[in-house]
Amino acid sequence: MTYLELYNNIMRKKSFLCIGLDSDPAQIPEHLRELEYPLFSFNKAIIDATVSYAVAYKPNLAFYEAEGAKGWKQLEMTVEYIRKKDPSVFIIADAKRGDIGNTAERYAKAFFVNMDFDAVTLSPYMGKDSIAPFLKIQGKWAIVLALTSNISADDFETLPLLGNIQMFDDLSAMYDSEGLYFTPAAPVGAPLFKSVIEKSMRWGNINNIMYVVGATRPQKLAEIRMFCPNNFLLVPGVGAQGGSIAEVARYGMNKSCGLLVNISRSIIYASNGENFAEAAAEKAEEAAKEMALYL
Amino acid sequence: MTYLELYNNIMRKKSFLCIGLDSDPAQIPEHLRELEYPLFSFNKAIIDATVSYAVAYKPNLAFYEAEGAKGWKQLEMTVEYIRKKDPSVFIIADAKRGDIGNTAERYAKAFFVNMDFDAVTLSPYMGKDSIAPFLKIQGKWAIVLALTSNISADDFETLPLLGNIQMFDDLSAMYDSEGLYFTPAAPVGAPLFKSVIEKSMRWGNINNIMYVVGATRPQKLAEIRMFCPNNFLLVPGVGAQGGSIAEVARYGMNKSCGLLVNISRSIIYASNGENFAEAAAEKAEEAAKEMALYL
């Protein structure tokens, strides 16, 4: 899917809602737990009920892996079902993978070839080697972790970098992996996540790279828009984690919307009774209606 | 497994060899490809032939995920087989996961409860939230990426940090996720990977946390031993990537060995004929014999 196609889908559905499928056998309604494919059955009902309000779905891989080979099968079934139900939906593998060369290529095969995901979330720690293989496949996206919504994002993501090359004690650090002289555009003390975004923007383009920026620090969205005006941002942290759609839209939206706001638990677990799908639809509709105000 | 048990296994086998099971349907011998479980059949033969020389095995998750649900099943079969064959072997899920709270707990369930892995490799980007859930399970280990062996490790892992708090422009950055005042022990300009090791050492102990440090920059092992003398290091990059056992032992070994040196392709793909397992055994024996010299 291209940037423009994603934007068009957003304008058509009047929504930039992504629904996180953190589908947990212990939290889905009891009457589904005894079925042969409980996670898929749950997902199918949620998708049927919410697809007119959502432009994207984001299965969280951990929940499927925790069920072993059968969980993986239900993940495959879910992706196939979404694709059939509404081919315009953007499907994100929330996998947070990050490994080098030949290994990254295998992950790309798993998510983009075997399954028809549009995008995969990736950790940038190991650098370009761990992102570039995902950018080679036409129409597919890398979603790079930048500033996440969890408290310990401050352990490393916001650490201030030294931008003053005279102070380097190891000259090799003045060159990046492409052999380019390292002259950070960022001022002295810019946080790591800024360097992640600035460097990785050069590895891809707005049609294949977006960033995870948490809704829990909305004013940071405005800072990021200063140096990253065009890329889409995938924004978790609305709902259970406390962020608000209004603030995300206010600080993070660009001319092409540029936002996918993810909501997981407060939609999919809106009820754990037999009416769970209707309850999810209500919550999704409510979110989409608010989003429409800002589009 | 405890630190001491791992050390005892190393001394008993006179080897600190970890064999990476990067088992790829396109690279295993042709006569195995038509079997029902080609990756498992390959792994089983490799394990049978090499288990007396290896203290650890490290399946690389990407290669199994690339085969879908059936790949995941063969991963489960492989872990079970290793555990049955030699219960003393340390089994590492090379998964490079990294996600928060409830999601990390699901990954821990996948690797430590459903499957009997001893350890999982983790990306530190998202901070303590993404490591701590793995440290809660008695006898299991988190192996945190520090300085990896790939070229683009220099994109972020070696970026120099600003250690001078007067220069912070955002006061919140002076506190880490535990609310502690941030007074880096590292001098101004210390690389990110040093901060990763120094902070995360406090989250666990030598019985449950080790670090990935590539063999391709052996002198960095000596630097790391200055501030991380006791933890085990998992060292990839020997063999196909160019690092040497001698240099890793010289710069990285501590009083309790403190090393697991991983070799993947140059052992498991030593031959692609019918004699592949014997060829792998020869290469593993050669590596172990060299390791014994340094123990």
Q: Explain this structure to me?
A:
- With 295 residues, chain A is of the alpha/beta class.
- Chain A has one domain (3-294): Aldolase class I (TIM Barrel, Alpha-Beta Barrel).
- Chain A has 12 helices and 8 strands.
- The first copy, chain A, has helices at residues 3-13, 38-50, 61-65, 68-85, 101-114, 132-135, 153-156, 192-201, 218-227, 245-252, 265-268, 276-294, and strands at 17-21, 56-59, 90-97, 119-122, 141-147, 209-213, 233-235, 259-263.
- Chain A has an 8-stranded parallel barrel, surrounded by 5 helices.
- In chain A, α9 (218-227) links the parallel β6 and β7 (233-235).
- In chain A, α2 (38-50) crosses α12 and α9 (218-227) runs parallel beside α10 (245-252).
- Chain A is globular.
- The model of chain A is unreliable at 164-176 and 179-186 (pLDDT under 50).
- The interface between A and B is large, with 71 and 70 residues.
Multimerization status: homodimer
**Strands of chain A, count:** 8
Note poorly predicted spans of chain A: 164-176, 179-186
Greatest interface by residues involved: A-B, 71 and 70 residues
Please write the string of helix (H) and strand (E) elements of chain A. Answer: HEHEHHEHEHEHHEHEHEHH
**Could you give me the name of the CATH homologous superfamily of chain A?**
Aldolase class I
Strand content of chain A: 5-15%
Q: From the alpha-carbon coordinates, what is the Rg of chain A to the nearest angstrom?
A: 19 Å
Q: The CATH topology of chain A is what?
A: TIM Barrel
Kindly report the spatial arrangement of strands forming the biggest sheet of chain A. Answer: 1-2-3-4-5-6-7-8
CATH class of chain A: Alpha Beta
Overall average pLDDT of chain A: 91
CATH architecture of chain A: Alpha-Beta Barrel
Task: Supply the helix-strand structural class of chain A.
Answer: alpha/beta
Taking the alpha carbons of the first and last residues of chain A, their distance comes to 21 Å
How does the major sheet of chain A shape up?
A: 8 strands, parallel, barrel
